[in-house]
Amino acid sequence: MVAESVFVTGAFDTYCTVDDVYRLMSGYDLTPLGTTDEVEAHIRDLLTPSRVALDAEAGRDFLFHADDEVICDGTETDRLALSVLGVTPLITVACVWVDDKQLAATEYVVYASAGIVRLKPGSSVGGSFPAGVQNVKVQLDWGYETAPGEISLAQAKLIGAQLAAELAGDRGSIQHLSLGDYAVTYDAGGEHARVIERWVEDARRAARMHRSVRLAVV
After folding, report:
1. What's the pTM value of the predicted model, to 2 decimals?
2. CB 49 within 8 A of CB 179
């Protein structure tokens, strides 16, 4: 039986540290992979593809977005549900513009925990965000100053799965290994196969828990 785990890569930052990976792999002898310096360098090389793998699986990132801008269509209601647009968690809203007119801070209220900006009665644009194409702009801070713990662990597990695959690669477990697309094909009966499968699935599950569907964010 052969199983395949595939993630897409790119170039972004990281959620876990080299020490996080070492703690996860504390029961494994990593010396076959090289000296301590070589293993640490190898783990650092894996930080980017594993981070992007999680982002791809979640359909979002887990960074802090300071002074960001979200442009969307008017909803014809009194509220903007930013969380539905994938802008979550919402931290603060600095400014709101409607049809290039900046609203006063007294004209709306922000429900950060719900990810909603709601117009107050009697606002200068009426009782609702007027219909239009990309006619509403919000300047805000959102995201995570520190990635959620389960996401940090998920990244460490992806890297751990890669290292375990390399450790078993000369004993019939690994049939294909490609860092370019973070793909590992392994024999489910091979050495470390169960751990590899569990860690990859754990990481996928953690990412999917945070999966966000973006409707109209620019």
Report:
1. 0.77
2. yes
